[in-house]
Amino acid sequence: MKLNQDCIRDILLTIEDMDYTMEGLTKESFEKTDRMQKYDPIQILYTLKRLYDARFVEVAFAKGEAFYVFYIVHSMTYEGHQLLDSIRDEHIWLETKKKASKVSSVSIPVLQNIATSVMKNYLGLD
């Protein structure tokens, strides 16, 4: 499955909006949030697992019957906040995606580097 860059951003924005006084959002609750409704549940699960593998988010995964995967989204790590801060601004995000589209795919760290470069350029820091 291909990692969807927009889904990465939307997941991080959704987690940022969560109420951290709660114990987390269940799979069903997370998938019903406004930003997540446009994605297939399998795409959300896949992206969450990759973000978890990269230590950007804290999620508890459990397998149920017939390959059903349950999860609870708890929070975003410091690294996740760093990534989100580099891709949060809509203008920066659109320019980042435009630059990243010049190749067939980019890793999350490369995406973050592109966004940082775009932001520095936008702020006149380059």
CATH topology name of the largest domain, in short, is Arc Repressor Mutant, subunit A
CATH architecture of the largest domain: Orthogonal Bundle
Major sheet details: 3 strands, antiparallel
Q: Output the number of helix runs.
A: 6
Specify the helix fraction band: 40-55%
Strand order of the largest sheet: 1-3-2
Within CATH, the superfamily of the largest domain carries the name Winged helix-like DNA-binding domain superfamily/Winged helix DNA-binding domain
Strand content: 5-15%
pLDDT below 50 for ≥5 consecutive residues: which ranges?
none
Q: What's the SSE pattern?
A: HEHHEEHHH
Our Rg estimate from Cα atoms comes to: 15 Å
Number of strands: 3
| Spatial separation of the terminal alpha carbons | 36 Å
Number of domains: 2
CATH secondary-structure class of the largest domain:
Mainly Alpha
Return the structural class: alpha+beta
Please give a structural write-up:
- This protein has a 3-stranded antiparallel beta sheet with strand order 1-3-2.
- By secondary structure, the protein is α+β, with helices and mostly antiparallel strands.
- The chain is built from 6 helices and 3 strands.
